[in-house]
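Example A, followed by Example B.
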Amino acid sequence: MAKITDALKISIDFEKRGVGLYLLLATKTKNPLAKRLFYNLAMQEIQHILKFEDIYQDLKDNNKWPRWTVEEGEKLEFVIRAFFHEAKKDESIKLADNVKGLELAMQMEKKGYAMYEQFLAKAKDANEKLFYKELLKQENSHYEALANVHLYLTQTSDWFTDEESKVWKWMNL
């Protein structure tokens, strides 16, 4: 169990750094779309921390990996889509400020993905494997959100014709 709890401790620390980064980036950007994305990512990272701490406590108490169920809240894409449709009337949504922050956030999500991939490869318990597989999906979702907003802000004129925009093609409307 020591290796499992070590992985959870590392994961909790990583997610805490993510919360701090996203909150900092949200306060430093003037673009309402990027700001909303950063705040929503911070909230999702907090949800991860809470779940990780519950699992950690379960492991300490029962010495058994609990079944992790994904709480289907609002998916990040749908939250950002609703905001985008309201905010697109505001020209500041096209303001490409803090692009470096988006790039830093994408790098962080890639690191998280790689870390969880390694933990999955070492996982022995079926529930632990499910846990890391779900985390990989969520980290990928975070990366896609950041990449879409980055592309929209840095190549707005190309956005409407770029093949990559099909990930979130609703931004073309």
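Example B, a separate protein, is given below in the same form.
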Amino acid sequence: MKYMLLIHQGDAPTPYTPDEWARLSEEEQQAVYADYRAVSETPGVTPGQQLQPAETATTVRVHDGKTLTTDGPFPATKEALGGYLFFEADDLDAAIELASRIPAARLGGAVEVRPIEEH
């Protein structure tokens, strides 16, 4: 089965959040990079992309036939999507195990594991 892993950064420090990132030691920063690299190199993983900070988003809605745009994300910034990847796994347990290895999951964020509908 194929899964999409949606990475919600939450409070997890990233290089895009310099103040929070600086609170990690050099060793911790290198461990985060290594963990993301290892996840990306896991068999069955199709790497996605890291997204720019939620503040750079534009939300689009259509109301009465008019396109309306709003600066920023739809959800609260803390809940905003930080990136994603795809994973072809034998079962949900394997996808959960991979999600648990994503640094954001242990550093204040979360990873949503969602099966992909195959037609």
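On Example B: The first strand starts at residue 2 and ends at 8.
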